[in-house]
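Quick start: what a row looks like.
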Amino acid sequence: MIPALLLAAATLLPGGASAHPELLREPRGLDTLEPAAVPPTPAPAADTIIIYTASKIVTLDPAMPTGEAVAVLDGRILGVGTLDQVRGWVTTQKVEIDRRFESAVIVPGFIEAHMHPHITGILWQGVYVGRFDRTAPDGTEVKGAATKAEVVARIRDAAARLPADGRWILAWGYQPEFYGNAPLTRADLDPVSAGHPVFIENLSMHIYYANSKAFEIAGIGDTTTLTGIVKADGKPTGEIQEIEAALTFVQKLPPLDEKVLLKATWDAARLAQRVGVTTFADLSFGSLPGAYKAYQAAAADPDFPERIVLNPIIEIFQQGPIAQKGGLDYLAEMHKADSDRLSFGGVKFVIDGSIQGYTGLFLWPHYYKTFQNGVANLPQDELSKWVLEVHRRGFQSVIHTNASLATDMALKALEAAYAAAPGPRTRDRLEHNQYATPAQLLKMKALGLSTNLFTNHIYYWGDLHASTFAGPDRAQGMDPAGSAQRLGIPFSLHSDASVTPVNPLFSMWTAVARKTMSGQVLGESERLTIPQALHAVTLGAAYLLGQEDRKGSIVSGKLADFTVLDRDPLAVATPDELKAIKVLGTVMGGKAFPAPAPR
């Protein structure tokens, strides 16, 4: 996923680069990543108690599971109960009773523990060529491309809107699995690109496509032997797989400017807040120059509606400015800047690619029918070496493992690290973890691991998992949330945005219903109950982030972060009704943020 985060958007903004000269300035590097506390957000006056009333407050606190009012002081929860009960907190303070949610239901603020905020925001400044309908950051509904021909037409239209100056055309979201497994090729792109270099991201963020002009600029030809350059009859087809090959193209793209990154930060926040998220985690932080500055600026703004957790990629500690400052040892310095608004989390590793991109790593017999397997971005010895280094320093390892062999590699690395450096466990967790076997789940339980499951895959790609990727039997056990629940493995659910749209209510539905696009149920025994799913996107996600002491439930002393819904998710008649629930707004640090109206 690293190359995706480096995509530049200058060429696709209105008017192109000539209308945005600031986008072509030299970006600041990671050497600007200095600890600097984020100023506290101005909240309601510290001597003012705000009491929010609701038709029902779902607290996820067994001692006080529901309430009708919640009192907030200085951004934190004083108490919850009836209106008379929470009024008992008042002594000499001013009191405001806010009844704007009195007909609504308040639940703990949703937490999206795995998305890619900057890449999501940046990509929306490009051309969307995906199959699924999407909602843009401004609320505009964008239709998916029904056919490959429509995808090519969108590239033609983008080229026609640009002056003939050779600027890059960047697009995202292509999904060949919905077009007869037909990748985009140079033969598709060359006739419609009007001399512009074209670089397109597969929705998986592990595969890319480029035209001949882009290959020329990247210096890649018939004799190039770089791993990941797909060839036919000795010639590059236009498809590029995984990190090493993609970086060759990314390095030739226009640089990003701080203003683009700040816009991307806000656009990601708009997408998240609209669906009730009050905290999101960036699971590929560190590959965008200037990213930290953008996050600092956003977090310091009292109108920014999100808390941010940054999960730095292992690569920034291996080489570059941060490595020169001490590598992983410098992460302790970075943590000194942590605040409730912006903080650092665990260190991210990426083992395999994407299942739908055929770069996931399965145990034998590998991919269904083809018996082929995916790509290892990290060999076992390198993974084990760096997981141990992270563990020795008391930091959390956050490991991307889509398919079962990748999960196996992660378990070996973690088990070896614990043996080599016994001591307190660091809540290490496996991300996506879609094909963890029963034996692997037992090993995870024994090792004290947690997991963040990608149940959205069940809806968007479940039919293909059963028919094409894994086979009908293995697909029944994909994203085994039910097993994790039964075994007591802490877990959450996530969107991996931009891969799928951020939407915790939808993720809850996918874990409870486990329905594919065709309506097939995959793995009835792996279904969650609605209360379990709500826990997963609140307290479960807070636990994975190491922040359950301050987030995830509505309890005295915790941060006043709430999601406001038009009905109680625990009282719906059927799981499908979860998809119909409307988010009316959020409260973050005691400050109310209404949900923007759709356009």
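That is the whole record. The first strand starts at residue 48 and ends at 58. The radius of gyration is 24 Å.
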